[in-house]
Amino acid sequence: MRRIGNMVRYLTLTAAKGATQSDWLGHSGSICSVFTLSEEPTVPQLDNVSILKKSNIYFDGKCVSHTVLAPDGTRKTVGVIFPSSLTFNTGAPEIMELVAGRCRIRRAGESGWTTYEGGQSFSVPGNSSFDIETLQTLDYVCHFG
């Protein structure tokens, strides 16, 4: 498995339409704090936060994220999910803020699918799960709590 090394390049490439996994995996460099923190899930950036350098890689690289820590101890992840069908388990309740892309989800116990796209968000209760089908590469911020 390879990891993301340069967060600035990662964010730039995943925001560009048509960016692929091979565009940003395997690059190295330092990660800087380029985000702005806010309780509003739709702000364009997160400032004054710390970013853990080690990436979180799931499902053979289909989902890659970095953990972001706020001064107040709040934890979020900023990441990307490439087109795929996956099942995520939750420990804590989550709000998935979709920055760009398109997906459909089905929460545990639901029979139908709901479609979401960049600019929207959805929530999932703690100690649960959800299926996600990524229709277009998905940039997201996961808010825990």
Give the gist of this structure.
The protein has helices spanning 7-15, 21-24, and strands at 50-51, 56-58, 63-69, 75-81, 85-90, 94-107, 114-117, 121-124, 128-144.
Q: Can you tell me about this structure?
A:
The protein is mainly β. The protein has one domain: Jelly Rolls (Sandwich). Helices cover 9% and strands 44% of the residues. It has two helices and nine strands. Strands 1, 2, 3, 4, 5, 6, 7, 8 and 9 form a nine-stranded antiparallel β-sheet that branches. It is globular. 25% of the residues are buried.
List the helices and strands and how they pair.
Blueprint: H1 7-15, H2 21-24, E1 50-51, E2 56-58, E3 63-69, E4 75-81, E5 85-90, E6 94-107, E7 114-117, E8 121-124, E9 128-144
Antiparallel strand pairs: 1-3, 2-3, 3-4, 4-9, 5-9, 6-7, 6-8, 6-9
Distance N to C terminus: 29 Å
Number of strands: 9
- Overall 3D form: globular
* CATH architecture annotation: Sandwich
H/E series: HHEEEEEEEEE
Name the beta content range: 35-45%
Radius of gyration from CA coordinates: 14 Å
Helicity, as a percent range: under 10%
Classified in CATH, the superfamily is: Jelly Rolls
Give the count of structural domains. Answer: 1
CATH topology: Jelly Rolls
Average of the residue pLDDT scores = 79
Low-pLDDT stretches are 1-40
By secondary-structure content and strand pairing, the structural class works out as mainly beta
- Largest beta sheet, briefly? 9 strands, antiparallel
The first-level CATH class name:
Mainly Beta
- Total count of helical runs of at least 4 residues: 2
